[in-house]
Amino acid sequence: DPTITAIAPQADGRVWFGTMRGLGRFNGLRMLDVPGPQGRFENAVRDVAATPDGRVWVSVVREGTFVREGSQWRSAGIERGLPGPHALRLRWFPDEGGGTGYRMFATTQG
């Protein structure tokens, strides 16, 4: 099922797509599958968020929440301050200082 569940554009022009089949990235020419660490992004993606510092956050059904820092994906559940290992929605809001800082919010409740 190629249904798109989430879209997250980055400042550099890359666009990330969550689908019922996993995570994809449009590189300006074509869509690329992003399998994630150990193929963990092959399930339905609940949400994707791109933050001003270049990070990409993704929540995957039955796999958890992950963050891409540079070229590496890392688990981003409870150990990163999220309320649980799985997030239904990922949202960021600028810090009050107006710079590139932000606050990340995730919820397991909708």
SSE topology:
Layout: E1 4-9, E2 15-19, E3 22-26, E4 31-34, E5 45-50, E6 56-60, E7 64-69, E8 72-75, E9 89-94, E10 102-107
Antiparallel strand pairs: 1-2, 2-3, 3-4, 5-6, 6-7, 7-8, 9-10
Brief sketch in words of this structure:
The protein is 0% helix and 48% strand.
Structure description:
The chain has no helices and ten strands. It is mainly beta. The protein is globular. The two termini are 22 Å apart.
Q: In whole angstroms, how far apart are the ends?
A: 22 Å
| Principal-axis shape | globular
Strand content: over 45%
Uncertain segments of ≥5 residues (pLDDT<50)?
none
The helix-strand sequence is EEEEEEEEEE
Mean of the pLDDT scores? 83
The structural class is mainly beta
- Lateral strand order in the biggest sheet: 1-2-3-4
Helix content: under 10%
Question: What's the number of extended β-strand segments?
Answer: 10
| Major sheet characteristics | 4 strands, antiparallel
Number of helices: 0
Rounded to an integer in angstroms, the radius of gyration calculated over CA atoms is: 13 Å
Annotation keywords:
four-stranded antiparallel beta sheet; 110 residues; single chain; mainly beta; globular
